Prior knowledge:
9 strands, seven-stranded mixed β-sheet, 6 helices, globular, Rossmann fold, alpha/beta
Amino acid sequence: MVDSQIRARGIKDERVLEALGRVPRHLFVPESLGALAYADEPLPIGEGQTISQPYIVAYMTEALELEGDERVLEIGTGSGYQTAVLAELVSEVWTVEIVESLALRARRTLEGLGYRNIRYKVGDGSLGWPEAAPFDAVVVTAAAARVPDSLQDQLGAGGRMVVPVGTDLQELYLILRENGGLKSKRLLSVRFVPLVKGT
């Protein structure tokens, strides 16, 4: 998967490639879909949610330019696969999932694999995790109609956020906090499930 689907498509960060090679993706998909676990496509994980295709996980992770000592906020734990990749690369991952059944399943999987640098929260991801902010990086794994102000506010100085934006047509954006302000850069067209907000 790493060599034929990810490295071959231009992902160059060796730390990201090695992390993807270490995380057993088949443990994060339903057992009935195990044969497709390493195919370069998103797969359903229940509750109307999906696990992103490996290339997109790699692309978003590489865009964060992680060095190893960061505190990262993940919005949308989902299966926990992106969470695991991040946990391989940084000192702390803070992950938020609004669907409790998914959050509990992901936590069981991640703790079973021995990850101890992850903090978990069931709640509205659009609100982030303000009491733990600021974060060095934020990754959003569901599409928002617009980037939530609360997530931008929780991005620390020099921080980077990757977030899919849009409804029917979605674009992946990189948000940078530098010189006291925010800059955004469009990266590529994507398709994610919508960001579910609390009521």
